[in-house]
Amino acid sequence: MRIYYRYWLVFIISLILLSITFFIENNPLPLKGEYYWSHLIRDCLTQYVRILLTLLAFIACYQFKLNPWITAFCVFAIFPIVSFIEGTIYKGSHNLIPFELITFFLWSLPTVAAGYLGKWLQHKNVQSNNI
Q1: How far apart (Å, rounded) are the C-alpha atoms in residues 131 and 20?
Q2: Across 33-37, 62-66, 70-74, 97-101, least confident range
Q3: Which of 2, 39, 52, 73 has a 20 to 30 Å separation from 107 between CA atoms?
């Protein structure tokens, strides 16, 4: 049961990183209306934040022995959540959800790779300590 709290921790840390980026970058707010939240979150996803999110997945899988796929989902979960909410609120945006989900999946692949790398290094570290 305790391991699920670690996934929530990864989700919350990723939200904090996106929020900090919003305040540091000083990007202008998107225009109110359709896709407001999607544009706001995508503007926060800079190259530096992608690197930090990848490092977050690496550290989480190395330190806590988490599943890399679930960790990547937790890191990028805010994007599909916002897409589904906007898809239910705005009438024309529900057609784009499959393409957005494919985009979010592609964005999460480096995070999955970093998670597997962290898990592999943790496994090698355990093996070297047992010798």
Answers
A1: 43
A2: 33-37
A3: 2
